[in-house]
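Listing S7. Sequence submitted for prediction.
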Amino acid sequence: MAPDLAELRQAEGVTMAALGMWTGAWERFEARLSLPGLRNAFPAGIPHWRGETDIAGRSILVHAEQGLGDTLQMVRYVPTLAARGARVVLRVQPLLGKLMAGFPGAASVQTFSDAVPSVDVQCPMFSLPFVFGTTMSDVPAQVPYLRVAPEYLLLWQALLGPRRRTRIGVAWRGRQHLPLRSMPVAALAPLMARTDLEIHVIQKDVSAPDRDWLAEHGAIDHSTNLKDFADTAALITHLDLVLTIDTSVAHLAGALGQQVWIMLPFSADWRWLVGRSDSPWYPTARLFRQARPGDWDGVVTAVVQSLSA
């Protein structure tokens, strides 16, 4: 009845993406650029590029458009653009500025706080799978595609001290615009009961009740020392495993090539597909899904059993 309505085309794209029908999904995702939330989100006066012309010898502004995790996932395409002869200016959220400094393929990296540079064309990050016609068989998934600056690695090596037990980082809560993807911290109790593990808090925002509960159960809370994602990345690099819900930490660990187990709600985000325990985006990821809505206890039980195995 309304085949050109942007909201419907976007919703259809999400469904197709979850089912692995990526070729059609990426084209439908472009409808998001007509939605009120994004229509005025990009610098004015710079032509949008969607792969329709040769990019060699031209400068292009590749900018973040959605969440932190989305940026960490889609920045993987920057080296491909550079390989085609483009001069890439990468524009990201301030919290990612230090982590992305010197990113491979980027001629320069700036944040939203910087003045918009003079470039030939621009392309929002989530248009890059469409530009390159990404399928599940050719995802640019060579990890790690993110590196941590040596000074951050040395700092966190000193903060952590000698390794005594297996180190597992945990993140259980994301921004609450998607509440079903977060779990109550108490659901992690079976994990905390393991005396052979060293549990590290790797999310920045921790409520006072959660902080008290974690302290009672022996977790090591780093939240006050995580100034930005360069700190989080360095901390993750020194861990043996990251255990997280579907939040930016999952994408960060995957981009770093670290072992990451992602705990998903029953109706998971499209990028994790349907019914799979692996991810074409992140070779080091393993997915644990709720068997029924709200069943975080079952997910944590499966995680603990897998750790024992």
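Caption to Listing S7: primary sequence and predicted structure tokens for the chain studied. The radius of gyration is 20 Å. The mean pLDDT is 94.
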